[in-house]
């Protein structure tokens, strides 16, 4: 029976980052991955002979630069390049919009001079809000479930710090920031723009991975969520990892191994080992038992609380919260092998538009109808499709002269109405998605050499994305920040003693590229701080009141002295630094 300082359940990129930080601190760490490959949803796999692609997560922006630098991922082979164009929106009438650095305003002016004049202010406004909140991606949210007294001081200090930082915004900006969390994307965009194609170009971000209409209250926040990131120092930019998203996971895995972590595949965890009321290890599906001082769950919280832990081991409030936890992002994912590049009617021939995110959704009304269709019938009759062709930037993915395409398709219901099963309708929906691209790029269907289609059920079975949810939980106000996954667990402590989590709860657009550093929290302190502090809440419950100081980094009094150097009880949060994201 093996014994470890910590077991990490799930070999997704967040778990691998957590493993690396802790192994660098000298801890004995093992990562247990159910599948035969590390990376979770950030993997590159062959889906058709000779054709490889990012199987689930397919573009990167929200992987924190701090994590890249701390783990020296470039030295481990990671190379990310920026896309030369951001988004391409072809329209049925033959017009199009192409957003790209230095070109977007002129493109918008083709549709509305007024909107072109408003565009710089709109972008600057979102960047102000992103800057105000961006630093909090590297901090654990205030734990609002802590009882009064001195234990509440860290949360109170954090709340005060957040208030002070937001106070740097004037009153009108604070009101607008509040509006972003409550308004629909359509309402917010109506304040800024008059042209429907322009609102569609930006409004698409409000429904990506969000099983909702752009008219749904709260969807405006998802607009902001998608500008938090950066790519090679360019704020808000999206890029491509050479070799696919699996290259990110492989670079992190290399860093983890170098630090001394043990990484195991084909090692699915059946349940947590509970002894004397605390998590003491994990039992594998094979029957093997591993013991540890802490178990770190890099899985959806519903999997943790409803499958890995017995009901009697989970507090009643947590069970009730998980029963209400909303998962399901309306996502159908496809990887397509092509014998040639698509030729769009709106913009024929090759060009930067083929390296962009190609959005097939001409208006907010179109997106609204797609959502209503899916709620009623199970999938949109006129679906929303975003297509990327990563082989335009990376020739390692396909044979010479041929290409791969990633299709991110919405909306589809996580569970089909009328008792229908996804396995019986997967190919029908995949045909519809190909036909949707064909309408804009005649000849696309004939160019398809092979395809992989992943329904919400496939995404759940393969990657552990409950309901196919790329964020591991809806991005609604009652499932964000200190309420993610529930009030009282904002510090990423599990619902049972000895259990902590690094799940992809704040994962961002495009699956799990959300800041791995922000998710790599062991017991409430992020993995990107001094790893000694990261270990504070992962120590044994019966060691909470060590009788004397020592040099052991797990010692309670020693930790208090470290906190003092950082500025008192709240100091442990000063440097706090979770991707599917994601």
From TrEMBL:
GO molecular function, one term: oxidoreductase activity
All residue ranges annotated as the Amine oxidase domain in the record: 15-325
InterPro entries: Amino_oxidase, FAD/NAD-bd_sf
The protein's role, per its UniProt record: Probable oxidoreductase that may play a role as regulator of mitochondrial function.
Quaternary structure (record): Interacts with COX5B; this interaction may contribute to localize PYROXD2 to the inner face of the inner mitochondrial membrane.
PANTHER family in alphabetical order: PHYTOENE DEHYDROGENASE, PYRIDINE NUCLEOTIDE-DISULFIDE OXIDOREDUCTASE DOMAIN-CONTAINING PROTEIN 2
Protein name (Swiss-Prot/TrEMBL): Pyridine nucleotide-disulfide oxidoreductase domain-containing protein 2
């Amino acid at each position: 029976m093996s014994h470890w300082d910590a077991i990490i359940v799930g070999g997704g990129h967040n778990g691998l980052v957590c493993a690396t930080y802790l192994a660098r601190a000298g801890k004995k760490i093992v990562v247990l991955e159910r599948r035969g490959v590390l990376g979770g949803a950030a993997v590159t796999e062959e889906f058709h002979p000779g054709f490889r692609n990012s199987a689930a997560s397919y573009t990167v922006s929200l992987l924190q630069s701090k994590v890249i630098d701390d783990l020296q991922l470039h030295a481990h082979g990671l190379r990310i390049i920026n896309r030369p164009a951001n988004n391409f929106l072809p329209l049925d009438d033959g017009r199009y919009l192409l957003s790209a650095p230095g070109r977007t305003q002129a493109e918008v002016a083709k549709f509305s001079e007024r909107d072109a004049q408003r565009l710089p202010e709109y972008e600057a406004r979102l960047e102000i809000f992103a800057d105000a909140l961006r630093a909090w991606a590297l901090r654990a949210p205030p734990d609002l479930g802590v009882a009064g007294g001195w234990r509440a001081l860290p949360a109170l200090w954090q709340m005060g710090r957040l208030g002070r930082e937001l106070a740097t915004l004037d009153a009108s900006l604070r009101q607008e920031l509040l509006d972003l969390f409550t308004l629909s994307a359509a309402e917010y965009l109506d304040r800024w723009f008059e042209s429907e194609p322009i609102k569609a170009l930006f409004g698409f971000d409000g429904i990506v991975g969000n099983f909702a209409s752009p008219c749904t209250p709260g969807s405006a926040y998802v607009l902001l969520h998608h500008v938090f990131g950066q790519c090679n120092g360019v704020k808000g930019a999206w890029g491509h990892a050479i070799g696919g998203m699996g290259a990110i996971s492989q670079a992190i895995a290399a860093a983890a191994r170098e630090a001394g972590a043990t990484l195991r595949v084909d090692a699915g965890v059946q349940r947590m080992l509970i002894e004397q009321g605390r998590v003491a290890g994990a039992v594998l599906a094979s029957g093997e038992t591993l013991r540890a001082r802490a178990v770190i769950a890099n899985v959806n919280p519903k999997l943790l609380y409803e499958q890995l832990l017995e009901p009697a081991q989970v507090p009643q409030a947590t069970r009730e919260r998980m029963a209400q936890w909303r998962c399901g992002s309306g996502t159908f994912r496809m990887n397509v092998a092509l014998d040639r590049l698509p030729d769009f009617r709106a913009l024929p021939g090759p060009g930067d538009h083929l390296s962009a995110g190609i959005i097939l959704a001409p208006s907010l009304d179109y997106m609204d109808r797609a959502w209503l269709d899916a709620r009623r019938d199970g999938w949109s009759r006129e679906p929303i499709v975003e297509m990327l062709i990563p082989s335009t930037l990376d020739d390692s993915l396909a044979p010479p002269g041929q290409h791969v395409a990633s299709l991110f398709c919405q909306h589809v219901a996580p569970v089909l109405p009328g008792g229908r099963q996804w396995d019986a309708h997967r190919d029908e929906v995949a045909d519809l998605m190909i036909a949707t691209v064909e309408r804009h790029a005649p000849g696309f269907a004939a160019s398809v050499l092979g395809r992989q289609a992943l329904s919400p059920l496939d995404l759940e079975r393969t990657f552990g994305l409950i309901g196919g949810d790329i964020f591991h939980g809806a991005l609604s106000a009652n499932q964000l920040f200190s309420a993610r996954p529930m009030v009282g667990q904002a510090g990423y402590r599990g619902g049972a003693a000895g259990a902590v989590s690094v799940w992809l709860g704040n994962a961002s657009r495009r699956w799990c590229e959300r800041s791995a550093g922000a998710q790599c929290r062991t017991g409430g302190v992020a993995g990107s701080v001094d790893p000694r502090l990261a270990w504070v809440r992962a120590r044994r419950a019966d060691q909470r009141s060590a009788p004397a100081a020592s040099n052991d980094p797990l010692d309670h009094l020693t930790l208090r002295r470290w906190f003092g150097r950082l500025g008192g009880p709240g100091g442990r949060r000063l440097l706090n630094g979770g991707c599917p994201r994601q």
